[in-house]
Amino acid sequence: MLFKEYKSTFLQELSPLYDEKEIESFFYLILEQFHTIKRIDLALNPALEMDALQLLRWEHVVSELKKYKPIQYVLGETEFYGLPFLVNENTLIPRPETEELVDLIIKDLQTNTASFKILDIGTGSGCIAISLAKNLPTAKVFALDVSEKALETATKNAELNNLNVQFLQKNILETADLGVQFDVIVSNPPYVRILEKEEIHPNVLEYEPHLALFVEDDDALLFYRKIAQLAQKNLTKTGSLYFEINQYLGKETVELLESMGFKDVRLINDIYGNDRIISCNRKDSL
Questions:
Q1: CA distance linking residue 95 with residue 128, whole number of Å
Q2: DSSP letters along the chain, please?
Q3: Strand partners, 77
Q4: Residue 284: which pLDDT band, with cuts at 50, 70 and 90?
Q5: Is the pLDDT of residue 247 over 60?
């Protein structure tokens, strides 16, 4: 069967569940990963064909997508900040908003030529830590997560990108002291309240790890408070703290950090106009 012919079948099969642009995006992602054929290649070579075995592989992908399984999990990989990352059901799928967090840190630190230490708390796939290590070559980057399986994936991602990140397994809620002073602590912790589940798309709710997503309604800032407490002890005097946050709790998160004595608290909108990033400095920073 010609690829261009199968594209029509692919669109027809998935059109009840996804919009046309998204289905087209899926098609070309799969085309490139399975066959190393880009959109332009297909346009220039409309007679390209798939064999019966390849067709079976595509049909399996369609069946998975019909279950709302995220395309990143179907393919087993994604791209984040220009780097390749392996992903699976043990790790959250990296999102554009988190790229904005990484970009902010890089811009804040890229003129610093001294060696400094960065800690990523709740690293998941390792996307934040690895992207920072790639773009801040003088930094020593550490990352921790409670999930052993997530850390296995993060370690593979560091190897995939030929970068040195030190990974640690640790439950941050049970940690009294990190034992090391860091110049930067960054975290994208669980922040979706249970009451917000109805807003979550089925492909997230049914497949992505709830441990990394959800927090109880009655203490939605649990992780922010705990990480900020550790930052009071384990940030250097001129250290900075960065968070990705719940868009509905920007004001509350700012107030929490200010009440704990952090200075220069910035609340930053993401590309969609939502409150999404906070940065601040330790209370006794110079």
A1: 11
A2: -BHHHHHHHHHHHHTTTS-HHHHHHHHHHHHHHHH---HHHHHH-TT-B--HHHHHHHHHHHHHHHTT--HHHHHTEEEETTEEEE--TTSPPP-HHHHHHHHHHHHHHTT--S-EEEEEES-TTSHHHHHHHHH-TTEEEEEEES-HHHHHHHHHHHHHTT--EEEEE--GGG-S--SS-EEEEEE----EEGGGGGGS-HHHHTTS-HHHHEE-GGGTTHHHHHHHHHHHHHEEEEEEEEEE--GGGHHHHHHHHHHTT-EEEEEEE-TTS-EEEEEEE-TT--
A3: 86
A4: low
A5: yes
CB atoms within 10 A of CB 209: 17
Residue given tokens 């799928």 in the structure block: 93
Tokens representing 154? 């993060």
Q: Is the pLDDT of residue 112 over 90?
A: no
Specify the pTM. 0.91
Can you read off the two tokens belonging to residue 286?
């110079």
Partners of 143 in beta bridges: 120, 167
Give CA–CA dist 190/211, Å, rounded.
Answer: 7
- Report whether pLDDT(215) > 90: no
CA 94 – CA 79 distance, rounded (Å) = 8
Kindly indicate the confidence band of residue 286, based on its pLDDT and cuts at 50, 70 and 90. Answer: very low
Provide the pLDDT for residue 113: 64
Instruction: Please report, to the nearest 10 degrees, the dihedral formed by the alpha carbons of residues 41, 45, 50, 54 taken in order.
Output: 0
